[in-house]
Amino acid sequence: MARPRKLREFIGRLKDNASLIKANLTTKRTVSSIKISILRATSHSSTAAPPEHQLDAILSLGHDVNLPLACACVEAVLDRLHNTRSPYVALKCLFILHNIITHGSFILKEQLSLYPLTGGQNSLKLTRFSNKSNLENWELSQWVRWYASVLERNLITARILGCYLCCTSSSSKFQENGNNKIAIRPPDCDLLKEIDSLVCMVEGICAAPESLHYQRLDLVHEFMLLVSEDYRFTQHQIITRLNELGDRTARMSYDDLAELICCLKRLEDCRMRLVEMFANRKRNDEFWDLVRQTRVGLEELNEKRDRGRMVVWKGWKDETTELTRFVDQRVMGTSEKSS
C-alpha cells in the first residue's frame, strides 16, 4: 500500500517539475511568474491547504487595477484545475477560487464571474471529475464535484442579488439624492427570485458528500470553514429579505405566496443536515424561528384567501341557482298561458 502511494507522489512531483519548466519557458515574464505562483500553491507534494503567504501573493495580483494581470491569474488557476486528475490539486484550485470570491479584489471577482461568458450551472466544468485509482481519491472526487457546484451556485446567486454573499453592506439598493441615500425596495418578483436563489445556495451546501470524516484533513477543513462562512452570509441575506417582505404579503398574489411558502419549506428541510455539517444548532435558533414564523404567517394568509374564495364561490352558486329557478318558473308560466 505504501509503495503505490510513494509512486503516485513521485509521479506528482515529476508533473509539477514539468509544469514549472513549461511556465518558465513562457515568453511573457509577468504571465510566467503568475503561473509559477499558482503551480507552487497547488503542488502534488502536499495534501495541506496552500499556505497563507501563497494565497496572499495570488490575491495581491488584483490590488492593482490591471485587467490583463487579473485575467491571467484566473485563467492560470482554471487551466490548472481543468488539466489535473488529482483530487488534492483540484481542491486546492477550488480553494484559491473560493478565496478570490471571498477575499479577492473586485476586478479578480469579476474575471471569475464572467468565466465562461455564458455563466450558469457547470461553469467550472467539473461535474464528471472522477479519479478511481483508489478509494480515497474516489471519495475525494465527490468533494471536488460538490465544492465546484457550491462555488458555481455562489456566483449565480451573486449575479441574481447584484452583490456577492460576502458583502457586509445592506443588500438594499440605494440611490444618491444629494448627500442622502434613499433605499429602493426591489419589486416583489425580484424579491421572490432572490429568496429562491438563496435557498438554492443552502440546498447546494447541504448536498455535501456523506463522508464528512474527511473534514479531519487540513485541506477539507480549511475550505469547509469558507463554506460555513458562505452559509452565514446566506443566512444574513435571507433574514434581510424576510424582513423586507413586511406589508408586501398583503398585495402578493396567491401563486406568489404559495411559491414563497414552498421556498421556506425547502429551507426548513435543510436544517438537520446543516446541524450535522456545522454543529451550530444553538447559534441559529433565532434564524429558524424567523423562517418558521414567516412560513406560518404566509400559510394563514393563504388559508384566509381560500376561505374568502369559498364564500364568494358559494354566494355565486346560490345566485346562479336562484336565477335558474326564476327562469324555469317564467318558462313554465308562459307555457301554461299558451295552452
Automatic annotation (TrEMBL):
PROSITE patterns: ENTH
GO process annotations (BP): clathrin coat assembly; clathrin-dependent endocytosis; vesicle budding from membrane
Gene Ontology CC terms: clathrin-coated pit; clathrin-coated vesicle; Golgi apparatus
Location, primary (coarse class): cytoplasm
GO molecular function terms attached to this record: 1-phosphatidylinositol binding; clathrin heavy chain binding; phosphatidylinositol-4,5-bisphosphate binding; SNARE binding
Pfam families: ANTH (PF07651)
Localization per Swiss-Prot or TrEMBL: Cytoplasmic vesicle, Clathrin-coated vesicle; Golgi apparatus; Membrane, Clathrin-coated pit
Keywords in alphabetical order: Coated pit, Cytoplasmic vesicle, Endocytosis, Golgi apparatus, Membrane
Limits of the ENTH domain: 26-165
Protein's recorded name: Clathrin assembly protein At4g40080
UniProt organism field: Coffea arabica
Lineage of producing organism: Eukaryota, Viridiplantae, Streptophyta, Embryophyta, Tracheophyta
Gene this chain is encoded by: LOC113713800
